[in-house]
Structure formats: C-alpha cells, structure tokens
Task: structure prediction
Amino acid sequence: MTTGYVFDDIFKKHDYPGHPECADRLTAIMGYLEQHALLPQLSQIQARPATIPELVRCHTANYVKMVEQVSERGGGMLDPDTYANEYSYQAALKAAGGLIDLTSAVVDGTLDNGFAFVRPPGHHAVLQGSMGFCLFGTVAIAAQVARHDKGLERVAIVDFDVHHGNGTQNILETDPHIMFASSHQYPFYPGTGNYNEIGQGKAHGTKINLPLEVNTDDEGIKRLYSDIVFPMLRRFQPQLILVSAGYDAHWRDPLANIGLSLTGYQWLSQQLFELAGELCEGKIVFALEGGYNLPVLAAGVGNSVRILLGDDKHYDDPFGLSPRPKPDVDQLVRVLKRTHDLD
Result:
C-alpha cells in the first residue's frame, strides 16, 4: 500500500493553555508514529492553504472573513468552546487544503489511501460559525471538492468520533450525493444526531445517525455498524470513503462515556478499509477529529495507520476492554432498520 499523510508544524501552533484540544495531541501522535517506525512508511503530502472558493462551498464568506480577522488581531474565543490565536486561521486553512490534496491524490490513484494528521478539527463547524473546538468543516470541504472538482458522483463520510458530527450534517443536509453516517453518545454534546435525522429534500435517507447510550462497548458498536452502517454503504455505493476519525469514544477518554476499546477501534478501521476495497477501489482517507487521552489517541491513530498500510495482524491495545456494564442495543438496531428500510 502507498499511504499518504498530511502534517505541518503550524497545526501545533494553534494552541491555548489548559484547553483539551491542544498541540500535545499531535505531538503524541507523531511521536508514536516515529517510535513504532510507521512514519517512514508513509508518503507526505504538503499542506497548503485552502482557497476561499474551496471554503465557501461549506461556509459563508462572512464567517471565513471573521475567523481571519480574529486571528489577525491575535486571537480570542470564537464561541464558548472554541479558541483562535494568531496562527489559527492559517492552521485551519492548511488543515482543509492539506486534506483536499491528500484526498485528490487518493482519488487520482497517486496514493492508495491516507491519513490527515491535522488540527484544528472540523466536524462541529457549521455553515455560519465555529463550534466544539472546530473552525472549518475540513471533511465536508474535502468531500465537496472531490464531488465538484474531481467529478465523483457519490462520496461517503463515516464519523466515529464520540460527538455527533453536527457541522458536517448541517453543511450537507440537503446534498444527496454525500452519505453521512455518525455514531455518537446521545444525548450529549452537541445535542443533535437522533436516529430520525436522515437528511432533507432529495438527500432524505442519505444521513444515518447512531445515537449511542453511555457505555456502549465494542460488541454494541460492532452490531450497529454491521447491521446498519455497512449495509447502507453497500446500498449507496460510494466512490470514496472519508472518515472523521475521533478516538474519544474510547472508554478511558476524559470527555465522554462510550465504552469502545482500542481493539474495537482496530476492528472498525479494518472493516472500513475492507469496505473501501470492496466498494471504491480502496479509496479511503482518514482525518483526525477528537481524542483527549493522549496514549489512547496515539495508539488508536497508530492502529489505523497500520491498517491503511495493509497490516491486519498487529495492533496495540495496552488498556483492554471497558470494565463498565453495557446497555442492550437491540431496540436501537430495530428502530434504525425500520428508519432506513433495512428489515
């Protein structure tokens, strides 16, 4: 496999003392990849700033200008959760532009697949504003560029961050050409993502939400993805799969309460990788979202990278399975099957 990656030092300059979405996250990831000799096996795509025309496919021009101005003034809080400093606008531009170019290289066949180690994250950023640590909707932007500039008819986004990808859904709510599937703790921040949010207008049925109870573990996640998400991907027949890869669904993450293990994450990444091989010639790109326990985050990303490199034999899970009691997902599976005509 030829696996590409995106990284730039400016992603670590977007930082704020004491904030959980911090530069240390990327330091931990890159250190793990180097320590385990994974980074030399990857091909780097240089991060370049996204253009304004690329950004305004998913955000208003006024919002983009506002982020630029706040950053130029030295920074500030864009909303109660989301900060900007003097480097944040350029970091967000390069996160989006780097993911666009990595995705384009995979679509063109220059690379088999890839992982964008980017910050700030993007899946909470809505059409007209920031939210939940996110400035620009990097994955949504890359999906739109793949559609309109690379000529793809169908792109799928799978979001396994513990929080609902409300920004991605908001931006793509009426787009029937982009499938969006999100598994997330519910009810929880940001309060959206119930099972009946399935897209509007011509996009009705192309948005799939898996609202998970607290402590849903590997077994529940496997059941829900196997019974709901994977059949929906096969029905949709995407030409590209983008993954909003958040590792905060792990049971040790400090900001959430879902019971996924690193073994469960490895299974999920492997299944998505294999589905990409089945459905779209292996064209799959991961982009970093959340994950706030640094050792878990680093190992989780490392395991996904191993899979992209074609290694399904080795993975790292020093923490084991969740010790917490798990809820029954039978009722949720039944509801989702009815909602999406999978019975």
User: Anything to note?
Assistant: The chain has a mean pLDDT of 98.
